[in-house]
Amino acid sequence: MSGCAAAAGHCGGFLITANNALLSLEVTESNSPERKTDISVYQLVTSVKSILYSADVIALSASHVLMAAGTVFGEIIVWSCFLSDDGLHKANAVGSIHHFFTGHEGSIFNVRISPQILSLNPNQPGRFLASCSDDRTVRIWDISDCENKTAQDPSAYATDGYDLRSTGFGPVGAGDQTVGSESCVVQAFGHAARIWGVYFRSIQNKDQTHVGLVSRGEDCTCVMWDLSWQKSSDGATRYEFTEASSIQPHIGKHIWSLDLHRLDSETVAYTGGADGALKRFSIKENDDTQLPVRPAPEPEIPGFQRKRKQPTTDRARAFAFVSPSCLLCVSTNGQVQLGHMDQTGRSTTSWEVLREVPDLGSFAVISGLPQKGLALIGNSRGLIQIYDHAARSFTDVATIGSRPLGLFFLETNSPSTQPSKTAKEITFLVCYPTKEEATLVTASGWNSDSFKTHAVTFKLPSTFVVCSAALIFEGQYLMIGSKAGGLAVYQTPKNDETSEPTLIDRRIHGREFVNHIHTVSSSSGSDGTQSDFVLTCGRDGTYCLHEMRLDGNKTDTLSMRIVHRTASMIGGNIEGAYVDELTGDFMLYGFRSQEWVLRNESKLTDIINIASGGFRRDWAFSPGSKDANACFVWRDDASLVVTHIQPDASHLLRAGGHGRELKAVDVFSAPEGGRSLIATGAEDTTVRLFAPTSLVSASPWGTFECVRVLDTHKSGIQQVSWSKDGKYLFTSAAFEEFFVWRVRAVPSFGIATNLLAASPKDDPNSDLRILSFDLLEVKEVDRGQGFLLCLTFSNSTIKIFHFSPSGCHFSLLTRGTYMTNCLTQAHFLVTGSSVNLITAATDGFFTLWDLTTTLESFYTMTDSVLEAKHAFNGSSAPADDITCEGRYQIHSNSIKGMELVPLSETATAIVAGGDDNTISVSLLRTSSTTTGPRANVATVSIPDAHAAAVTTVKVLSQHNIPDTSSNTASTKITVATSGNDHRVKIWSIVVDPAQPGTQGISVEFLLDRYSAVADVSSLGLVRKHGSVNSSDSDVPGSQNSQAQLVVCGVGMEMFGVED
């Protein structure tokens, strides 16, 4: 359970077991010439024999070992082992129990003994004990009396045979004198789930009357705590235990490991989670003798420095950044002030009064453009002024006649153009609280004699309240976002005429604010078509990428479609996005409940969480640059809180993946010059898209770089599959969820994904799992791309759909039912002019279904290609139900994995693995008759092919072997299999359809390889035109392999494969 090194001057250590026994580990010089040292492990003493969930042990001296043990029944036992000084530990060890703590409402998951604290007691040093449990509390206990205990002191409790309570659960009542009645000195509630561990931070000052702690939990959160104590006038010690801050470094569930390291004035925390990630964040320490006294807790947040500063005796009315290190603020007495912030965060922000305008005391609205050193200020009479930070000047630019609701700076430069740091002309939008219109103002020369302004009015759609705006197509069009989730696009007028919207969509972000709009990239087609890719962020927790297309056929027709939509891990409110200048990473910021969050979306990790009271408070944010750190300012009551965010506030040492075990994988191997994509689905309900990386560029991703996360599913993923061209991804889960995603690459953004459609349900409340599906590409009436889909459900039902990507709709063609067993596999088999379906089930049988007759009314078949006879409009007009033509047993129980290899028009090889640890190879021969297809099956089984269930089968290659003597050919198939035994095995199968029965099937074992991935569920194959270094260089041919085998289960790894 735990261990520690022996006291100074002794070689060895001590270990405590789950049965509450102390073991001694000694390292001595060996008398044998074969080795230099001997290691001896033996039991010293046992305490109360209880099952432990946690323990901590420290050697106070050579003769005194102190232990704390947390039991499964909520008890904490603090006891010592006393040893003699002569080294005869085994013969003279004595155990003594000092404390028996109870009170937790659950099992004790961690206990931790603090370092020695000199200031805890007046006359002697002391120690604390911290404990945590699944009751979500951290409790602090005083164990200072244990420091000076000796073997001669009587034990507070007998070591056996005493009368204990049945468990340690429940609170300790006042005045309770029974066993286990000792109560904690202080406790606090934290985390949203079970707390796995708690740790003391180091104490640097001997007079320090406070100490910090860190806890980790099932909710993927680390909580920073402050524990302080102070002697009162009556001689009692008063304790205060408060949560200072929290950070969520991992996703999914569980932070399994944590360690702390003191480095100068910071404590560096390293965490490891169930998502496989290793992360680091810093905690700013306060080594003063006492914590500062303040009216409200002002927590230390990891990785940034904070300071409060009230500019004047009144409060701030409005504020905005005018440069990365300067904040323009208007106070309630009308003062316009400039705050200069020290980027080191070690000194107080200095404030400079620029001017005093009484009108601004009652109302003011500010908008800043810090990259150009400009700000707009509007008052209640509609006067708008521009502040030029370089010239320290204020200029009246417009009088709009009524109070403005918001001011929005608009930049006209394209994404490919580097914006200038100075501006000769500005454009901004003014919106109003009551008018259904907005004013577009252009101003130039405000610091010269050639000052010009031009204003144009836009008529807004009904109930359309502006909350964001941006210019697109280099200023030709204006896009505005509403507080009700809509977008409207206007053509920028060349005169004073009122403009009407060209495009409008009321529900881009549901019914929530569209907080942010900006252009990510632009492109042009050979036909003159222009495209701008515009990013929008909303309070609905999603960000969207829109492709705005402007036709070049002199009609200037504008169209808009969403090419990407995803919900960020930020949560319910994304306020904005930008690309980091130093790293090129895509950054998001917004609010998660009451916390402001800065998130690196490229690396899928939070940079910082700041408890700021939520988005309803006034705030401003300036992204980091090469010359300045990022800065976040928010109003707390009458004060402004300024937060400088250090670049290394949270550092990703090793990126992770899914937070739970993977259940499915499929690989799209891109053509030469492209980038392959690996789609994985897991029990954490997410689908992730990974791209293989080379070892040179692996950090921090390793072999797999996650390029996108899809989290629309509500349950664990069952299967994922790509279309042949990689444009579409199909995923299935429980609740009859079957989704179709459009996947494409967008310049300057990366992989874009958009949910096109979900399959219809017979019952909206259905909880059926779609265990397997298969797809077959067909041609639409207009020669476009379509898909024939087969879905198998956990109630033994089969549904056949046609999916039209152009219309994003499903059409039900037919359905069928298979007995009472769950269907685990489904594969289309197209040969010549016939279409069949092969399914496998939990009864060990595979079944042949004839679809040819059913599909003839919908498709024509030419050269094994299905072409639609008519257009599908999404309506359901199913044909007669399909029935199985034959059942063939190939396993004794459930078939977990199955692959089909067509050999000829009449012969197909079926390779399967099952729960019976067996691999089977079946030769299916079919022939057409007047009554339907007739099939003959011959099967060869390899029993005990694995030591556990065979869960997945993957065909690696297929080669024809001609036989010149008989003028026939056999087929050599290379197959990989895996399961729950940590092994990946390679098999060679030769099938000759010309031979009768099983004589035409031969199986040869080629390779057995250990895999570190537990409970392997699926295998994928990355076919490469070039070479990518594998993480396992000892596989033959892996250094120059043309393919890589992806192994998925509890984790992922990749093997190099050569034929």
TrEMBL record:
WD repeat locations: 101-151, 710-744
One Pfam family here: WD40
Protein's cellular compartments: Cytoplasm
Alphabetical GO biological process terms: tRNA methylation
Main localization (coarse): cytoplasm
Record flagged with keyword S-adenosyl-L-methionine: no
Stretches the record annotates as Disordered: 289-309
SMART domains referenced in this protein's UniProt entry, alphabetically: WD40
Keyword Lyase: no
Keywords annotated in UniProt: Cytoplasm, Repeat, tRNA processing, WD repeat
Entry GO terms, CC: cytoplasm
Transmembrane segments: none
Domain of life: Eukaryota
Similarity comment text for this entry: Belongs to the WD repeat WDR6 family.
PANTHER family: WD REPEAT PROTEIN (PTHR14344), WD REPEAT-CONTAINING PROTEIN 6 (PTHR14344:SF3)
Protein name: WD40 repeat-like protein
Organism in which the protein naturally occurs: Penicillium olsonii
